[in-house]
Structure formats: C-alpha cells, structure tokens
Prior knowledge:
The chain is of the alpha/beta class and 432 residues long. It is built from twelve helices and 23 strands. α3 links the parallel β6 (93-96) and β7 (115-121). The longest helix is centred in the middle third of the chain and has 14 residues, at 248-261. It is globular and about 60 Å long. The protein starts with 12 loop residues before the first strand and ends with a helix. The structure holds shikimate-3-phosphate and phosphoenolpyruvate (PEP). Phosphoenolpyruvate binds next to α3. Its main location: cytoplasm. Keywords: Amino-acid biosynthesis, Aromatic amino acid biosynthesis, Cytoplasm, Transferase.
Amino acid sequence: MGNLTATRPPQPWTAPTASDPVTATLRLPGSKSMTARALVLSALAAGPSTLARPLRARDTELMAAGLRAMGAHVSISDDESWLVRPHPLAGPAHVDVGLAGTVMRFVPPVAGLADGQVTFDGDPHARTRPLGPLVGALRSLGVRIDVTGTGSLPLTVLGTGGVTGGEVVIDASVSSQFVSALLLAAPRFDRGVVVRHVGPPVPSAPHLRMTVQMLRAAGAAADDSTPDVWTVEPGPLTGRGWEIEPDLSGAVPFFAAALVTGGEVTLAGWPHSSAQPLEQLRSLLHRMGGEVTLTTAGLTVRGTGVVHGLTADLSDVSELTPVLTALAMLADSPSVFTGVAHIRGHETDRLAALAREFAALGADITEMPDGLEIRPRPLRGGMFGTYHDHRMAHAAAVTGLAVPGIEVDDVGCTSKTMPEFPALWSAMVTGK
Ligand SMILES: O=C(O)C1=C[C@@H](OP(=O)(O)O)[C@@H](O)[C@H](O)C1
Ligand SMILES: C=C(OP(=O)(O)O)C(=O)O
C-alpha cells in the first residue's frame, strides 16, 4: 500500500440508481475491529501468530505500521494472511493513526510497554477525536504521556519497557475503545488491570464483548461478569491462528440495497457463530422490512422494496447510524434513532453531518443531542459531503439507489475500511 497518509484530490462520484432489484453474493473484507484486536494481541504475544483473511485497508495498514514502528514483525504470507512475529518493543518510533479510532486508542497502551519514546499524530480531524479519558487512565496506571492542548493528539508516550497496571476508574461513555484499549494490553501490565467505568452508559457493548472474547482466545484471564467492571490478570498471551470474519458493519450498506430495491444480497463466508452483533442487526433490518437468514451460501438479506421506519436505541451498533439513516430516509414511515450522542466523536460529528447533508437534499430531519428524527419525504439530488468518513459515503450510496443525482464528494474515503467499495457497489447496482 502506498503512502497511507497521501492526500487525495477528492473526485465526486455519482451514486448509481437502481433500475432493478439487486441480487449479489459478496465476498467482503475482514472485520476491521477483529483485525485490529488480532494485530495488537499478536504483537504482545509470546510467539508468532497468523491472521487469515484480515482486513487490508487504511485503518488496519496503519495499525500494522504502528506496531512495526515499535519493532513487531508484521508481514504478508503467500495466501495474503498476515504473519505477526513479536519482538521486544522499543522507541524511538512514530505512529501515524490516520483517522483510525482503533489505532489512536489501542496503540498508546502498547507504547507504554515499549522501551523508548513513541510519538503519535494523525489526520487533522483525528486531533479532535476524544482521547483524554484514556490518557488520564494510562497515567494513573503508570504510563508517562505528554500531550499538547486538548488532551488528544498529538501525544508522546515515554515507554519504560513496562507498565505497572492495577485499578483504574474511567468515564468511557464517549467511546468503548477506551476500555478495549486498556484491556488488550493489560495481560502485559505487571499487575494486569481492573477497569471501572463511572459515568453515562458505555456504548458498543458488542465490541467490548469482542475484546474480552479475543483476549480469552489469546490465553488471557479476562472477566466481565460485573457490569461496568472489567478485570484482566497479568500473564502471557499466546500466539495463534486468527480467523478474521467478514466485516458485518461493512456489509450493511449492501444489505440495505436489498431492502431498498427488493433484492437479495448474500455475504459469503459468514461463520456460524460470530463475535459481531448479528442479532442486533437482524432485528433492526427485520423491523425495517428485511429478512435475514443464514444459509450454507452465507448470510442472506432479502428485501421487498418497501422500507419501514422505526424507533430504535442504536447504542450497541452506533457505527451503523449513517446507513440506517439513509434507509430511514427512503422509508414509508418516520424513524427516531437515540442512544448515539458519542458518534459526534467518530470520524466526524455524524449527527451534525447527517442532519446537514440530508437536509441539503430536502430531507425532513431533526438533530437531537443523542440521535436523529427522520420524517421521510422525496429527496432531490445534489452533492453529499463525506467529511473523510467512510460511513457517510456508504449512506450516500444507499440514498443514491433511489434518488438520482447524489454526488459523493470523496468516495475515496471508503478506503478507510473497504478500498474496493466503489467498484463493488457499482458492480452490484449496475452490473459493471
Ligand atoms: O472497538 C472497536 O473496534 C470499535 C468500537 C466502536 O467505537 P465506539 O464505542 O467509539 O463507537 C465502533 O463504533 C468502532 O467502529 C469500532
Ligand atoms: C467509528 C468508527 O471507526 P473508528 O472509531 O475505529 O475510527 C467506524 O468505523 O464507524
């Protein structure tokens, strides 16, 4: 992959309209979240690991580059798997986080275990994404961190080759990644960690369960049996073979196309048990008019061409808000989404961005402190701003299925998690 931080002159992309029901079987890239976790756990393990079918996109390439910068050996094997051979971590090193929440949260705790200085910075907007509570927690666990200004990026970790660890209280209501970040590195902390969340609810419970599940799969003693308390004992992590599942969230725009056009989309290679929030998605799509089934071909979503609005708390699956908002725009009834105040700290302030961009297309949409109200009505074509946010581009593409003339200002931002999105989408909708 070339310069991961190369600036790209945005090229407006016309989202294709669907003249017929879409029918497609897709092989999509691996889960961003699973790939990020497997890379971190593998870099901290006692022996080598392989990641089969990892996500190869900007976020995960930046994660691999950040770990390599500190000394981990991450290479590509013949079958496109990633091979990770751990090595003592050391500075000086620099980590470019891009706009990846997983990199800017999961790697600083790892840097605390390195021997030497590790600096972090990223895209301009990454400097506005929340990081302060994690910085405070790491300091209380014995990690020396220098930050400038707002407590976010750029920052410097002065690693000493070890982290004391122990008990820490944190308000993780702004991002579950603060908790996952502490837990993933904790087996290598001298005293492990006991994380106690105090504050409004932590979002993204399925991602927290994924963290605990993958820690256990790497041999860690992780306990999440007490609400808002997570305990990880100190101990070795074992290298292993990681089977990365297809990215469920990345499939949702394609599933949405089945609902909008009355078609059928199958995600091939879906496992029979998953660390990803399939049941939450199944329920949401069912309520919106879709049917989700697991067959030998994979995970199949069928639609009727009629989309229903719904009222839903999206806190478990907050990253789906942009695409579900696009679906709601095309529904036969109103929708109310709540429980996602924290997505103002995602790749962009998604609530403000969605309200602004859809209103510019003529939508009747109201921004609330923690969500959105949508009252569907006919939309007009126009430019749709993405704010470097891959899921804003996905939302525009879904809208374009039924609204001619949707121009996406920078579809290249989908390279964050799926570089092949424009080609896959066009092939699914237009056949070419
Ligand atoms: O741990 C992870 O891999 C993620 C957790 C969630 O973050 P938030 O809890 O900040 O929403 C999710 O939105 C993000 O896309 C990936
Ligand atoms: C919020 C997201 O990603 P991250 O926070 O990992 O950058 C996302 O992919 O929707």
